[in-house]
Structure formats: C-alpha cells, structure tokens
Amino acid sequence: MRYQITGKQIDIGEALQTHVKDELGSTIAKYAGRPTDGTVVFSKSGHEFVCEAVVHLSTGLTAQAKASAHEIYAAFDGCNAKMDKQLRRYKRRLKDHHRERAEPVELMNAPSYILASEKDGDESEPESLQPIIIAEIETRIPALSVGEAVMQMELAGAPVLVFRNEGKEGLNVVYRREDGNIGWIDPN
C-alpha cells in the first residue's frame, strides 16, 4: 500500500509516519485486504490537532475518517479507530462486493465547477442569471450498482453521491434524507 502522510504547516516526524503506516496498515489489512493507497493529513485547528485519513481500495471504494485531539498521536488514533469501526461495520458488504466484482470500478471523468455565492445584504438585481464560475475541477464518477453507491456514500461520510448506474444508462444520485433514510434519483 502506498502512503502519503503530510502536515499542513506542521512538521511530521519519522516516528509518527512509522506509527501511521503500522497502525493504519494493520487496520486496513484486517478488513479490506486490497488497499491501493492511503492519504493521511495532519493539521492544527486552534489548540487541537486534526487528522484526516482517506483510503482507496482496489475495487474503487473509498473510506475516510476524521478526528481531533489535543495531541497529534491521539488525533491519529481516534481517526484510525473511526476507520476501523467503519470497515468493521461494512466487512460483510465489502466481502460480498469483492466476490461479485471481478473488475475494478470503472471511473468516468467529468468537469465540476465551483460557483460564486451571492453576497448577503446585496439586494440589487444581478445583471444576468448566469452564475460566476470561480474554479473548474476534474471529478471522477464511478460506475456502480445502487447498493454499492449507498455503501460508498456511507463509507465516505458524504451526504450525496452521483454515480453511473451499471444496470441502466445515465447518471443516478443517492442521498441521505433528513428523516435518516436514503433517497435514490433515477431519471429515465
């Protein structure tokens, strides 16, 4: 597994990098078996250290966790515990996913845009209804079944996931509803 361990305006020493590789590697090996790469980013927010971890599995699934603590090792240990809990919770679903899928998830590239928000207190009428584009980013859209999309959304902790439905043509959306259920948008 490839690791990218970085700090945002924090110096990350060799001892912490070794600790992260050993602990995260053993956590992932227990449940996933085939990780491809992991990214761990440490930062400081006020008086607390924040650790964010993202692990990409060879099937195309992504698991991520985030934790904060007063000490940097405790922040990583909390993040690792969340990753462990997440993967343990989905172990059976991940095993079924590996068995059903012989090939990795196919990814399609699509442009993603960041639009300028309207300023608060600005009562004037805009000159045009076209939003102002601040940035353009390349986004990857996976080809998944609906069950895999729901699992991916929950593993990533995301409120919404856009995916290409393997069973049909076109894009679909799954999202977390306010009542706690999952919504699925399947246009014809």
Textual characterization of the structure:
The protein has 188 residues and is an alpha+beta fold. The chain has 2 domains: 2-98, Ribosome hibernation promotion factor-like (Double Stranded RNA Binding Domain); 105-119 and 126-185, Sigma 54 modulation/S30EA ribosomal protein, C-terminal domain (SHC Adaptor Protein), CATH 3.30.505.50. Helix content is 30%, strand content 38%. The protein contains 4 helices and 9 strands; from the N terminus they run βαβββααββαβββ. The protein has helices spanning 14-31, 72-89, 91-100, 146-156; strands at residues 2-7, 35-45, 48-57, 62-69, 107-115, 133-144, 160-165, 171-176, 182-185. The protein has a 5-stranded mixed beta sheet. Strands 1-2-3-4 form a 4-stranded mixed beta sheet. β3 and β4 form a beta hairpin. α1 runs parallel beside α2 (72-89). The chain starts with a strand and ends with a strand.
Topology, please?
Blueprint: E1 2-7, H1 14-31, E2 35-45, E3 48-57, E4 62-69, H2 72-89, H3 91-100, E5 107-115, E6 133-144, H4 146-156, E7 160-165, E8 171-176, E9 182-185
Parallel strand pairs: 1-2, 6-7
Antiparallel strand pairs: 2-3, 3-4, 5-6, 7-8, 8-9
Helix pairs in contact: 1-2
Protein name: Ribosome-associated translation inhibitor RaiA
Organism: Lutimaribacter degradans
Defining traits:
188 residues; alpha+beta; Double Stranded RNA Binding Domain; SHC Adaptor Protein; 2 domains; 4 helices; Ribosome-associated translation inhibitor RaiA
What is the number of independent domains?
2
Distance between the termini: 40 Å
What is the overall shape?
A: globular
How is the main sheet built?
5 strands, mixed
Secondary structure: helix percent: 25-40%
Rg, nearest Å: 19 Å
> Which spans of ≥5 residues are poorly predicted at pLDDT below 50?
none
Instruction: Briefly note the CATH topology name of the largest domain.
Output: Double Stranded RNA Binding Domain
CATH level 4 superfamily of the largest domain: Ribosome hibernation promotion factor-like
Strand order, main sheet: write it out.
5-6-7-8-9
Overall structural class, as computed from helix and strand content, comes to alpha+beta
CATH architecture group name of the largest domain: 2-Layer Sandwich
